[in-house]
Specification:
Elements lengths: L10 E6 L3 H4 L12 H14 L3 E7 L29 E4 L10 H7 L4 E7 L1 H14 L3 E10 L3 E2 L6 E2 L1 H12 L5 E3 L1 H4 L12
Parallel strand pairs: 1-2, 1-4, 2-3, 4-5, 5-8
Antiparallel strand pairs: 6-7
Amino acid sequence: MREIRMRGTRRALLVIDVQDSFRLHRSWEDISDPRIVEKAAALARHARTAGEAVIWILHAEPGSGDRFDPAHGLVRLAGGLGAEESEPVVVKSSHNAFTTTHLQRLLTAQGITDLRICGIRTEQCVETTTRVAGDLGYRAELVIDATATHPLPLHDGTGTLAPDALIARTAAVLSGRFAAIVTLEQLGVEGWNASGPAS
């Protein structure tokens, strides 16, 4: 198990599924915020400066034959992101980052009690990981404007939920129950294009 180097902190940043399986797929045209890569990189720098752990999570579905199949070479951090030597890259095959990985063991071994979470997709792997983290007793923060998602068809085929609605819904259902909802500005994260276009 890779040792995480920390300096007097009990927090880890989890960057979830910001990977080329999304970035290099045609669906990237519909992502709610293409700056998610830039924002994840800024959060990682912010965490490193504070002496906090950074853990990268990737989603893989071996044998699926699609973009999440490692055989296709896209299950890797999105271009522009890079894990430092002390930063684990954990590969999951479930929606949450705990069930199919050694993440909890890794966090426990390093005495981490607080999690700061960002990534793709807001209402899917990010939300599910945040819920499980809360249930496991971690103090979780969801950096809501450092998440991104896609339009989601309604179950009955009558329409589509827009990404803004999905993100607002995730913030509402997690806030005060499973996590605190925070923003990049509230955290004082610098080094991302706050004024640039979302696409």
